[in-house]
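In this section we walk through a basic example: taking a raw amino acid sequence and producing a predicted 3D structure, encoded as discrete structure tokens. The instruction is simple. Fold the sequence below.
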Amino acid sequence: VQLQASGGGLVQPGNSLRLSCAASGVTLDYGAIGWFRRAPGKQREGVACMIPGRSSSKSYADSVKGRFTISGDNAKNTMYLQMNDLKTEDTAVYFCVVGSLHLYRCTWADVDYWGQGTQVTVSS
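The resulting token sequence is shown next.
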């Protein structure tokens, strides 16, 4: 199983980025999908999770609600994280995950597979 995240980079506050994660060896309908992040000196945080095809299942960290949007394309076996109005506190390594259906709650215990991550740096 491989989860290859891309799309990270250095952006100024207020700008946007779109992260992509191409999955191989596992399909997005395995269960649920999500994005986690880890900032220096901070604990790993579940950012956004969902069950593909079920928009009502989307869950977001309070810190990103209204700014980030998770989505998945089963045909391309790729998940996305649209990040708008980025803030300096969004700086972190972002990595995509696949897990059981319970992963829609965005808890690490429900993750089965994860990728190596992509760096997002928000700085002026």
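Looking at the output, two observations stand out. The first strand starts at residue 2 and ends at 6. Residues 48 and 60 are 4 Å apart (CA to CA). In the next section we compare this with other chains.
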